[in-house]
Amino acid sequence: MTVAGLLLAGFGYVGFRLFDLQVTRHEELAQEASRKHEKKIVLPAVRGSILDRNENQLAHSVAAKVVAIDPQCVREQDLKRSKAGRPSMKEELAAVLSEQLGLPRLEIDLKLLDSRRYVVLKRKVLQEETGQLAQILRERKLQGVIFDEDQVRTYPNSALMSHVLGYVNSEGRGMDGVELLMQQELQGQNGWRRTECDRQGREIVVFRNEDFSPTHGYNVMLTLDQVIQSITEQELDKAVQKCLPDGAVAIVTRPSTGEVLAITSRPTFDPMAADKKIETLRNRALTDMIEPGSTYKTVAVAAALDQRIVTLDDRIYCENGKFLYAGRYLNDHEPYGMLTVAEVLMHSSNIGAAKIALLLGKERMHRAMLDFGFGARTFDEGRGRGWPGEIRGVVHPLRDWSKVSITRVAMGHEVGVTPMQMVNAIAAIANGGNLMRPQIIRRVVDGNGRVIREFFPQVRRRVVDPNAAHAMTDALCRVVSMTGTAQKAMVPGFSVAGKTGTAQKVVNGEYVHDQFFSSFCGYFPAEDPALCIYVMFDNPKGKEYYGGAVAAPVFREIAIRTASYLNLRPTQPIVAASDESKGLLRAAGKRRVP
Amino acid sequence: MARNRRKVEGEVTFSWVFARLLMFCILVGLFLGLTFIQRRNLKMGDELKMLERELQSAREKTQSLRSELAHYCTPRELEKSMARFQIAMTRPSEDQIRRRADPDASESGIIAPRLLVQHEPVRLTARTP
Predict the structure, then answer these.
(1) How many whole angstroms separate alpha carbon A462 and alpha carbon A470?
(2) Angle A561-A562-A563 (CA atoms, 0-180°, nearest 5)?
(3) For residue A230, which residues of chain B lie inside 8 Å, CB to CB?
(4) B60 is a domain residue
(5) Which residue of B has its CA nearest to A127?
(6) Would B73 be classed as within a structural domain?
(7) Are B76 and A578 within 8 A, CB to CB?
(8) Least CA distance to A56: which residue of chain B?
(9) Which backbone phi and psi does A445 adopt, to 5 degrees?
(10) Within a domain: B128
(11) Taking the C-alpha atoms of A146, A152, A158 and A164 in order, what is their torsion angle to the nearest 10 degrees?
(12) A575 and chain B: CB distance < 8 Å anywhere?
């Protein structure tokens, strides 16, 4: 009886225990078991590439590894070794890791003391380095090092185009430029795999439950051309070395479509560098506001021609260089008497431009400024989407204009513009009067080349009629002539239209006489413009500071090399180009040009 | 009555042995089959894993080669190569310029003066050392 009772009690206990484990604590224990054996592996999506208009890679991701250690595993192995009377593994492992990863020994020693089972040593280690490290670890039978998937963003051109491309942070997220603007398209969607592992943490493939492949990021093709960009940057850099400005910008666009072929901003940065100076990150073409100076006279004259208030041959009295209006004097750099409207642009007369604006009237002048796209973001796509950091510039509302404002605005003062706005406005005159939306993104394609999204040239609005635009081109061609202010912008074989600009800088709310924004914006061939180029220097040092002397030669060099690269057909006979250019430079060197 | 009941010993007949033997064989067969399938699954899993690793490695290699190609296609590298092989971009001399009539000229045969020159802007000229 006693035995039977004990047996019964024993079976009863086993039954109770079984019930407890299988029913009462089922959920908890099942979770515990799955936690120990089940594993969710993230399959990272590869970030898409950024390509130029000829499908050259400008930014792409390459596979890399995160190197981590499991300090507990190292300790366990050490214990086994000490029992077997073998030397410690920790010392040897730390020495190998320090040497291969280039990390300080102390840092590795500290991380080996950590109580966690996963401590990152270094991220974004390239395949070659990890391959070598893995081989050494295998040979020396060192355990406890974990290699996880990672990616490193590479920019083959280094700093070229860096302000357009932007950069990514340590998590691979776009932080500026196209990387930020197209983050959604570029990033892709990670996949995952739910599976079971053995005691060593190795996957048992037959127990895979879920397996979702990653969707890799799309490739983004730009309108930019890396060769034109390289030409632009080289020429700008040469000039920057000579005149040592605080900053410089050069933009190349196609006036007919609004496509941007090159954008350069100085100072610049390397997107792959870990320590980027904050002041170099700014894309001055879009984030800096300048008073444009005389380049802005094109707006006043184009609006007056469009409204048929003046013609190119109308004569304006330029007061011999000193004009009193609303109690304030306005000066010209040289005294002029009677000038035609075309000559006002050719000689860049402030008084002439002011008088044309007065004929136009402040309402129409203000309207023209807004129509040409000033005071609005050029890349604004609505709903807050636009180019990261782009500013609107400043066009004061009419109610804030003083009596003299109209005379100052006409010559590019009392107005704040971005270089992109300026080149876009001049491009509108070049293409016959249509203000285009600047285009940097051409299309989004997937890994197989299938077009996902395509962007087409867009006309924002017509700002002047074609006749006025052609008349403006005619006048601007005279600026880029032996008698105009931009002789140094002349390009052999092509007729060039353009306008120089030299504006005093405002420092602490006052105009200073020794700091300038020197710029030139032009397009060629004038008959059928293929390219519109804008060059601007912020505070160039040295004797030469006029736009015609500092910025126009850069325009010329960019134009010559780009025309060769694009194989543009010359529109004028080329007569001994080199001699002509020498003569031009000699002639230009003798004159001070605004 | 119970005393008169005759104790009947279970007879081991051939069919009884055969049935049990068959059952045993089936069970062993099933066990071996399952073991075989499991081993095969594990082997296939390992093969799959190996193929996945190879695919991953091939992808990484492709990425790396693409990266290398992109590096060689940069204007900076092309310029370096041109300098190394002493290839220079030069403007054409007068005898290298072909002049021809403008195809867009008007019916009267007047050639637009601005289009008189058909200019080939740049030629690659190799200078041998």
Answers:
(1) 14
(2) 90
(3) 75-76
(4) yes
(5) B60
(6) yes
(7) no
(8) B70
(9) -125, 155
(10) no
(11) -150
(12) no
Report yes or no: A560 and B122 within 8 Å, Cβ to Cβ. Answer: no
Q: Residue B3: pLDDT above 70?
A: no
Express each pLDDT in A246-290 by its tens digit: 999 999 999 999 999 999 999 999 998 878 888 899 999 999 999
Residue closest to A521 by CA, chosen among A554, A543, A544: A554
| pLDDT-flagged residues of chain A (< 70) | 381-385, 574-594
Tell me which residue range forms the domain holding B23: 15-91
Supply the DSSP symbol for A289: -
For chains A and B, count residue pairs whose Cβ atoms are closer than 8 Å: 86
Radius of gyration of chain A from its Cα atoms, rounded to whole angstroms: 34
Do the domain assignments include residue B33?
yes
Q: Check residues A438 and B108 and name the one with the higher pLDDT.
A: A438
Question: What sign for the dihedral angle of Cα A580, A586, A590, A591?
Answer: positive
Cβ distance B74 to A565 less than 8 Å, yes or no, reads no
Q: Residues of chain B whose C-beta is under 8 A from some C-beta in A?
A: 38, 41-42, 44-46, 48-49, 59-60, 63-64, 66-67, 69-71, 73-76, 89, 91, 113-119, 121-122
C-alpha span between A68 and A62 (Å, rounded): 19
Q: Is A455 in a helix, a strand, or coil?
A: coil
Distance CA(A159)–CA(A119), nearest Å, equals 33
Is A386 an 8 Å CB contact of chain B?
A: no
Structural domains for chain A: 41-222 (3.90.1310.10), 226-590 (3.40.710.10)
Q: Which chain B residue shows the shortest CA-CA distance from A57?
A: B70
Structural domain count of chain B = 1
* Chain B residue numbers touching A573 (CB-CB < 8 A): 113-114, 116-117
pLDDT at B2: 53
Per-residue pLDDT tens over the stretch B27-55: 999 999 999 998 998 899 889 989 998 99
Residues of B in contact with A570 (CB under 8 A): 117, 119, 121
Condensed to tens digits (0 to 9), the pLDDT of residues A213-249 reads 999 999 999 999 999 999 999 999 999 999 999 999 9
Note the pLDDT of residue A458: 92
User: How does strand A497-507 pair with strand A510-524?
Assistant: antiparallel
* Complex prediction ipTM: 0.76
Report the residue count for chain B: 129
Decide if pLDDT at B121 tops 50.
no
**Which H or E element spans position A586?**
helix A577-590
Interchain contact, A206 vs B64, CB within 8 Å: no
| Smallest CA–CA distance from A159 into chain B, residue | B76
Q: Does A206 contact B66 at a Cβ distance shorter than 8 Å?
A: no
Sheet holding A510-524, edge to edge: A260-266, A247-253, A531-538, A510-524, A497-507
Q: Of B41, B75, B121, which is closest to A564 when you measure between CB atoms?
A: B121
With contact defined as beta carbons under 8 Å apart, do A497 and A523 qualify? yes
Distance, in Å, from the CA atom of A493 to the CA atom of A495, rounded to the nearest integer, reads 7
Of the candidates B45, B63, B121, which has its C-beta nearest A63's C-beta?
Answer: B63
Instruction: Considering only the beta carbons, identify the residue of B59, B67, B118 that sits closest to A60.
Output: B67
Of the candidates A46, A62, A563, which has its C-beta nearest B64's C-beta? A62
Residue B107 has pLDDT above 60, yes or no: no
Encode pLDDT of A304-324 as tens digits.
999 999 999 999 999 999 999
